Amino acid sequence: MLTTVADRLQLLTQKFKAIRQQSEYLARPLRPEDTVVQPIIDVSPPKWHLGHTTWFFEEFLLNEYVPNYQRFHPRYNYLFNSYYEGAGDRVQRAYRGNMTRPTKDEIIEYRKYVTAQVLDYLGNPNSKIDDRALYILDVGLNHEQQHQELLVYDIKYILGHNPLFPAYSEKEFEGPKESNIKEAAFLEVGEGTYDIGYDGEEFHFDNEEGKHKVFLHAFEIMDRLVTVGEFKEFVEAGGYKDYKVWLEEGWKWVNTHQVDTPFYWFEVEGEWHHFTHHGLEKLKLDAPMTHVNFYEADAFAKWKGMRLPTEFEWEAAARMYAPQMPAEANFVDTEHYRPIPKQGNNHQFWGDVWEWTNSAYLPYPFYHAEDSTLGEYNGKFMINQMVLRGGSCATPRDHIRLTYRNFFHPHLQWLFNGFRLARHK
Q1: CA 425 to CA 219: how far, in whole Å?
Q2: Considering the entire predicted model, what is its pTM?
Q3: Across all residues in the chain, what is the average pLDDT?
Q4: Nearest to 149 by CA among 417, 365, 371
Q5: Chain-centre distance of CA 39, in angstroms?
Q6: pLDDT reported for residue 368
């Protein structure tokens, strides 16, 4: 356990270097034109991610802790602030794609400048480096990892809506071949009271606090994720036309947007294909289903006569059957950039896809947002969103925990989201 400022400083300095390099590594295959566009409001231009994650360290760490700090550019605070009211005015989210300037190369220079300034600050024995400074640094690192994941989503959306379907990665996909997955088994969780929430001393977000008890009735939960092949049966059975299995909001979404197939699915010469970071490919039926929103996941569950687990059921089952991250868990570090078929005894609680739960994103008992601009990080979004658990193939391996609570609006599909089913015993 790291107990001293010096120990934490050494570890966080190493992480800072690696995480900053990873963002640029993810952006390296992109053409300059790829980094500018914003097809929808939910997708930010890739170069904006590179700038915003740099601004975070400049605004919250350097500007506060380095005397007479000179900002790289006087207007970058306006360009790269996202939603922090306490940090001043900003470009509205829908207009990020209008920023043809600064160029990607200029943003890379901005990154180099701020990275060097942070390392000078961390390496200077005369710097004021206290617990608060290290906390801000840690938040900044985890914040950049979150944007690395968003960058993977956004790259796929940008390239997947280009008529040429260009591949992000030219490397041939080297993941596991299709496995012979049989009918899903179900894991049993008994009736009782379960501890939920983070209870430790390592980094975690405030929405994981505090540890509390939840009573659960006995239930069963799938031992793996729902697959592409299983969801294909729902599609071909007319699931998108069966109002009886849809929530009212979901049915309105289907009809308003005329949805009759999953996101990124295309029929080519009578055969289903989907777009991946490796280009357009035939469906891999044993792979976990992804890019389904909450409405689609809920409709499928009802079609199967089951339901989605709550986030508390998910956490209790994961603690019981997958308390440790398996070596074969599929995160962005594998560079598959896609969910892969279940391997061995891995129950897929870790990685592959963020799993929808039937829980609204609300504060835990004892939740308290800090009284600073960083207090805007999670708490103000606790309305009209649903919780997802487990991480995805776009999540950095060292970023995830079983208590990690992701959250998105129920209509969104562009993230790597999937699901498993549950039922009462």
Answers
A1: 5
A2: 0.96
A3: 95
A4: 417
A5: 19
A6: 86
